[in-house]
């Protein structure tokens, strides 16, 4: 079970925060089909490179039931990307401090951002570390505290 599904079950919420983060950063998903032949041709490196329909010259991919359904897949939210995003937060101009707290039930990620009159806290919590980080990043992007293009670049690499 991946950590995202585990977090959704524990919280009772079916929101996919990593997908929301990808959308907020402007990351474009790849389209995977049920046809592994098409995915190989498009460079998704999924499945095999032999299609039984190729033998029948009358069939085209549009006619095949396997190529009609597509699934949107975002790049993996790897620990290496998470570390780079944490570095981006720590080095952001308006971030005054950043810290992660943990106990047996959840992770709490906080940062203080500089505002016109006083520092403001931006806080995200979740039982799973990567989801807590995604929640924090979404909040910082909404507040325009991070460079969206930098976040997108890290997520797409």
Describe what you observe in this structure.
This protein has 157 residues and is α+β, with helices and mostly antiparallel strands. It folds into 2 domains: 3-23 and 76-156, Double Stranded RNA Binding Domain (2-Layer Sandwich), CATH 3.30.160; 30-73, no CATH class. It is built from 6 helices and 5 strands, in the order ααβαβαβββαα. The chain has a 3-stranded antiparallel β-sheet. A two-stranded antiparallel sheet has the order 1-2. The radius of gyration is 20 Å and the shape is elongated. Mean pLDDT is 78; it is low at 1-14.
Please state how the strands of the largest beta sheet are arranged side by side: 3-4-5
- Count of alpha/pi helices: 6
What overall geometry do the principal axes of the alpha carbons give?
Answer: elongated
Our measurement of the CA-to-CA distance between the termini, rounded to an integer number of angstroms, reads 24 Å
Determine the CATH topology of the largest domain: Double Stranded RNA Binding Domain
**Count of distinct strands:** 5
Portion in strands: 15-25%
In total, how many domains does the architecture comprise? Answer: 2
Radius of gyration: 20 Å
CATH class of the largest domain: Alpha Beta
Major sheet, described briefly?
3 strands, antiparallel
Level-2 CATH architecture of the largest domain? 2-Layer Sandwich
Flag low-confidence runs: 1-14
| Mean pLDDT metric | 78
Q: Name the helix and strand elements from N-terminus to C-terminus, one letter apiece.
A: HHEHEHEEEHH
């Amino acid at each position: 079970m991946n950590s995202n599904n585990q977090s959704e079950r524990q919280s009772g919420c079916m929101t996919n925060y990593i997908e929301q983060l990808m959308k907020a950063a402007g990351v474009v998903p790849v389209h995977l089909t049920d046809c592994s032949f098409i995915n190989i041709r498009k460079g998704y490196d999924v499945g095999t490179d032999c299609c039984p329909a190729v033998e029948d010259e009358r069939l085209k991919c549009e006619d095949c039931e396997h190529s009609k359904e597509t699934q949107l897949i975002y790049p993996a939210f790897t620990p290496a990307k998470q570390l780079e995003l944490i570095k981006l937060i720590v080095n952001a101009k308006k971030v005054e401090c950043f810290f992660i707290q943990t106990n047996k039930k959840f992770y709490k990620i906080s940062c203080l951002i500089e505002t016109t009159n006083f520092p403001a806290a931006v806080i995200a919590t979740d039982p799973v570390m990567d989801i807590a980080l995604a929640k924090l990043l979404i909040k910082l992007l909404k507040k325009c505290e991070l460079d969206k293009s930098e976040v997108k670049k890290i997520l797409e690499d």
